């Protein structure tokens, strides 16, 4: 159990609370740097620098997701049985940081002189290693919020700070990675091995940044509200059964899947939408910037509203309604300015949803502990993390299925655009497929997200649950 070095009054000061918020928040800055590197640049690196086929790489991503699911669960389950002087979660953050950093570097260090089969084997091994590093760092980050404070309003502030730093990590990746790659490659026109070395050297710099940031995080935060320790031994399967007795957790799992499937599906189809529906791909960077930046004010507004007593589930539903308005606008427009404004609106709405979602998870973890007498936050975090990854895979598959149904042919579409033809007139089925992939899937996901939150009433019950947990812990500490 975490050993506290100061009197309890110290941990209730404003300065310490801000140290906790920022210390925990910067961890998501590091995680998002790594996450976006793999999701934004890796496929291009594999095909254009390492010479691997897109089909082989796509299959690799699917296979490794299932391996990832196993490691997620194992790490989460072990986490629930961890008890050290540093606490339950901080040691994992410290241990996982160098694994993640080395994985980032190895991902972008494919030996280009090897045969295709050997290079693909390298890709498999290093992607699994990278995913393990990401799991070691990311799985503890959600349940650690329960250990940083017993106060639901303070947890909201910690989760909000995390999301703000996550957004800044996304912006850093979007704005600086490509310039760094070409700087280290030696030329803005670099290709082949020169470009490959640019990616490798960029990841060395970013990997060092990840280690430094995670160390600052670990030594800035304190687990002042440690989970309950139980003498009763339990198996991993028993833990998993107890996790799924929590009806609120099941609601959040559905919310995770639909929320991220819709959002990531939109990302996956965005370049197609701006290239062939809007017909102006140069407007895409501005749209991405608005989508990212406008989530920050809504994160702060959501935290303020929750502090004023507005239930988290209602704020999530409000954000989903705002997003739906944006998605409906996208579905019926092909105007560049209107589409970009709609994406800004979606970013604003998603800030409400993501901020409250990461604040709701610790409450749901506490409900499981209250219900079954054991803290299983690690297992719950692992399962929810896998659902997030599954939503990502589903989003990619759904976008691909829409394009296949629409008879997508890049050469024909590019020729039509070059000839000044409107895709909606010459290839109406393809136009509809791209439109549906970009906003239609997200509309369906948004409606489900609103409906699944209707019976969620944990916000009303939580004060009583929190009081009971505190009294249990007081009795245990006295004995």
Automatic annotation (TrEMBL):
<protein>
    <submittedName>
        <fullName>MFS transporter</fullName>
    </submittedName>
</protein>
<dbReference type="InterPro" id="IPR036259">
    <property type="entry name" value="MFS_trans_sf"/>
</dbReference>
<dbReference type="InterPro" id="IPR001927">
    <property type="entry name" value="Na/Gal_symport"/>
</dbReference>
<feature type="transmembrane region" description="Helical">
    <location>
        <begin position="43"/>
        <end position="63"/>
    </location>
</feature>
<dbReference type="GO" id="GO:0006814">
    <property type="term" value="P:sodium ion transport"/>
</dbReference>
<feature type="transmembrane region" description="Helical">
    <location>
        <begin position="92"/>
        <end position="110"/>
    </location>
</feature>
<feature type="transmembrane region" description="Helical">
    <location>
        <begin position="436"/>
        <end position="456"/>
    </location>
</feature>
<feature type="transmembrane region" description="Helical">
    <location>
        <begin position="164"/>
        <end position="184"/>
    </location>
</feature>
<feature type="transmembrane region" description="Helical">
    <location>
        <begin position="286"/>
        <end position="305"/>
    </location>
</feature>
<feature type="transmembrane region" description="Helical">
    <location>
        <begin position="204"/>
        <end position="224"/>
    </location>
</feature>
<keyword id="KW-1133">Transmembrane helix</keyword>
<dbReference type="InterPro" id="IPR039672">
    <property type="entry name" value="MFS_2"/>
</dbReference>
<dbReference type="GO" id="GO:0005886">
    <property type="term" value="C:plasma membrane"/>
</dbReference>
<dbReference type="GO" id="GO:0008643">
    <property type="term" value="P:carbohydrate transport"/>
</dbReference>
<keyword id="KW-0812">Transmembrane</keyword>
<dbReference type="GO" id="GO:0015293">
    <property type="term" value="F:symporter activity"/>
</dbReference>
<feature type="transmembrane region" description="Helical">
    <location>
        <begin position="122"/>
        <end position="144"/>
    </location>
</feature>
<feature type="transmembrane region" description="Helical">
    <location>
        <begin position="248"/>
        <end position="274"/>
    </location>
</feature>
<feature type="transmembrane region" description="Helical">
    <location>
        <begin position="325"/>
        <end position="352"/>
    </location>
</feature>
<keyword id="KW-0472">Membrane</keyword>
<dbReference type="Pfam" id="PF13347">
    <property type="entry name" value="MFS_2"/>
</dbReference>
